[in-house]
C-alpha cells in the first residue's frame, strides 16, 4: 500500500542548533516529494520540492536546506536554527494521488 | 502562476445552521481543486476534490463543495454545522510547477478558521 511517514511529530530546539526532519514514502518509485511550512497556524508555503534523487528545487530563500539521498527519502535540514524557523512542517507526495505526512511541530527557543 | 484566495479569516456559525467557507482560484488550464481540514497541531485531512464532472462534489463528514467555473469559485458547504466541525479549513489548487516538467504542487489558500457555536 502507498503511505508516507514523517518524523518526529514534535521538536523543541534551541537557537543555533541543527535540524533534521525526515520523510519517507512506501508503495511507489520516483515520487515527487515536497516540504511545506505553516507559520502561526495559517497558510502553507512551499519550501522545497524534489523530482528525483539528488534533485532539489527551492521555492523561497531561507535558512533551511533539503536533500533527497534515496528515491523514497526526503530530508529537511538546517545547520543553525533561527527563531523564525518555528512552525509546522509538512511533507507531501503529490502525484496522481496526494499524501501528506502527519506533520512536525518545531519550536525554536 | 496559480493562486487561491480565502477571503474570510474567520467564520462563525451556530450549531445546526448551514455553513459556507469561500474560496476563489486562479490557474491556467483546468483546475484540480481540493479542500482540507486541519485540527490543532495536526496534519491535513482530505475532505473532497474536484477534477471533472458534476459541479457539486460530496466529501467526508457531510461536506460538499460547488465548482463554479464562471466565478472561479469552489465554496465549501455543509447543510447543518456541528461543534466538532470547528477547525482550520484550506482550499487548494493543483497545478504544474514552472520549469520542472512533471512536478506538480498544491497552492493553498491562507486558511479560514471555522468556529461552530453551541
Q: What descriptive keywords fit this protein?
A:
heterodimer; A: about 110 residues; mainly beta; 7-stranded mixed β-sheet; 11 strands; B: about 120 residues; 12 strands
Descriptive account of the structure:
The complex is a heterodimer of chains A (109) and B (118). Chain A is an all-beta fold and 109 residues long. Chain A is 0% helix and 59% strand. Chain A is built from no helices and 11 strands. In chain A, the strands form 2 sheets. In chain A, strands 2, 4, 5, 6, 9, 10 and 11 form a 7-stranded mixed sheet that branches. Chain A is globular and about 40 Å long. In chain A, 35% of the residues are buried. Chain B is mainly beta. Chain B is 0% helix and 53% strand. Chain B is built from no helices and 12 strands. Chain B has strands spanning 3-5, 10-14, 19-21, 24-26, 32-38, 44-50, 56-58, 64-68, 73-78, 87-96, 104-108, 112-117. In chain B, the strands form 3 sheets. In chain B, strands 2, 5, 6, 10, 11 and 12 form a 6-stranded mixed sheet that branches. A 4-stranded antiparallel sheet of chain B has the order 3-9-8-7, with no helix packed on it. In chain B, a hairpin with a 5-residue loop joins strand 5 and strand 6. The chains are: A mainly beta (109), B mainly beta (118). The A-B interface holds A 32, 34, 36, 41-44, 46, 49, 51, 57, 88, 90, 92, 94-95, 98, 100-103, 105 and B 34, 40-44, 46, 88, 90, 94, 97, 100-111.
| Distance separating the two termini of chain A | 38 Å
Strand content of chain B: over 45%
Which stretches of chain A of 5+ consecutive residues score pLDDT under 50? none
Label the structural class of chain B: mainly beta
Task: Tell me roughly what share of residues is in helical segments of chain B.
Answer: under 10%
- What share of the residues of chain A lie within helices? under 10%
Order of helices and strands of chain A: EEEEEEEEEEE
Low-pLDDT runs of 5+ residues of chain B are none
E-strand count of chain B: 12
Average pLDDT of chain A: 90
Secondary-structure element string of chain B: EEEEEEEEEEEE
The major beta sheet of chain A can be summarized as: 7 strands, mixed
Q: Please tell me the overall pLDDT of chain B.
A: 88
Shape of chain A: globular
Structural class of chain A: mainly beta
Amino acid at each position: 500500500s502507498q503511505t508516507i511517514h514523517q518524523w518526529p511529530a514534535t521538536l523543541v530546539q534551541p537557537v543555533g542548533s541543527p535540524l533534521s526532519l525526515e520523510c519517507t514514502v512506501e508503495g511507489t518509485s520516483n515520487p515527487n516529494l515536497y516540504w511545506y511550512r505553516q507559520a502561526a497556524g495559517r497558510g502553507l508555503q512551499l519550501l522545497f520540492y524534489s523530482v528525483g534523487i539528488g534533485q532539489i528545487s527551492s521555492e523561497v530563500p531561507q535558512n533551511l536546506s533539503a536533500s533527497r539521498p534515496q528515491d523514497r527519502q526526503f530530508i529537511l535540514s538546517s545547520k543553525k536554527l533561527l527563531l523564525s524557523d518555528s512552525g509546522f512542517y509538512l511533507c507531501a507526495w503529490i502525484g496522481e494521488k496526494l499524501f501528506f505526512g502527519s506533520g512536525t511541530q518545531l519550536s525554536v527557543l | 502562476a496559480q493562486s487561491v484566495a480565502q477571503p474570510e479569516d474567520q467564520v462563525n456559525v451556530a450549531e445546526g445552521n448551514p455553513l459556507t467557507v469561500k474560496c476563489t482560484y486562479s490557474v491556467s488550464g483546468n483546475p484540480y481543486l481540493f479542500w482540507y481540514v486541519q485540527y490543532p497541531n495536526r496534519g491535513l485531512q482530505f475532505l473532497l476534490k474536484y477534477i471533472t464532472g458534476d459541479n457539486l462534489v460530496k466529501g467526508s463528514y457531510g461536506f460538499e463543495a460547488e465548482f463554479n467555473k464562471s466565478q472561479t469559485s469552489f465554496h465549501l458547504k455543509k447543510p447543518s454545522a456541528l461543534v466538532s466541525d470547528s477547525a482550520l479549513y484550506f482550499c487548494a489548487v493543483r497545478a504544474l510547477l514552472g520549469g520542472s516538467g512533471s512536478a506538480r504542487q498544491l497552492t493553498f489558500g491562507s486558511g479560514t478558521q471555522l468556529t461552530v457555536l453551541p
